[in-house]
Amino acid sequence: MILIVGGAGYVGSVLIKEMLARGYAVKVFDRMYYGDSGIRDNLERIKLVEGDVRTMDDTVLDGVEAVINLSGLSNDPTAEYNPKANFDMNTRATERLANLCKAKGVKRFIFASSCSIYDVGIGNDEQDIVLDEEAEVNPKAAYSSSKYQAEKILLSLADKNFCPVILRKGTIFGFSPRMRYDLVVNTFLKDALSKGQITIHYGGEMWRPMVDVRDAARAYITCLEAEENKVKGQIFNVVYSNFRISELALRVVEALRGVNVESQLKPDYRYQGVRSYRVSGKKIKRVLDFTPAVTVEEAVKDMVESISRYRFTDFDNPRYYNIAWMKLLEEASKIIKITGSVFDVQTRPFQPSIVGGLDKVVRSR
Fold this sequence. Notes:
The protein is of the alpha/beta class and 365 residues long. It contains eleven helices and 16 strands.
């Protein structure tokens, strides 16, 4: 049985489908922060355990042969919203989970890292080169830093009884039953469908390595099935190709024309703290013979069809945006602590109040 930690999320929902199609027995451990929409179609075919990775009991690992860790906060806005929680989930919880695996004899541990570790930013032309897994990195952002620290911890734990594998994925695009519209290609598509135009920030000059969510899922399975001597203690970039953001926007527009959707491009040249980096995906091809295959155009056409089929056209729903959903639940949690549940009967004792300076008790109505 394979345990997918954070398996009900954007990538996990697609990974589960791919693994079930290959005959794997799958257990999912997830806090269910975004509900069960991503795994609802497969609930009867998996074993689901709800909980927080920071406090996961080692009994969850009973009968588990390998772990794929997709858990934690998954982008810069959510990490910067609460840096402490980001570090606790992405770094400390990863270390704790790895040690639980070692103690339980679970050997293979595949970790979801990020190519944002390579970010050099705009204005560093001398560093604007294609970087591979051997490149020296020094991430500063909360999200990429937490992932990099987790990587170093995992690599230090590698021995004859523990086989960590790290996948640095490019920016993901494509359809998932736990859909997200806060990823660049998905955002372009959403804006084209809902507004008829795509806004290109900073003129679209920045570079970004990209990969479809189905290819990301295939990469995890490839690392799961690979010979141990090829993957133990190894880092692999997972990238279909590197694109300037402006090119991505043009590709989305052209792909949409192919399904009779017209949209306009709107450049915005204001600086907004953008990220820029280019990454090589040659190592995973050379070592594991894995090549991402889904093009941006194919993904756009698939998303148009799937969004309609799943009725994910309520584009303003905060569930599709990680930071918006997090803020909404945080606000709701604070209110419920004061008021209690909307549907529960409240049995608070009557508290009289004094009106003016008079000793007159007025009951609340």
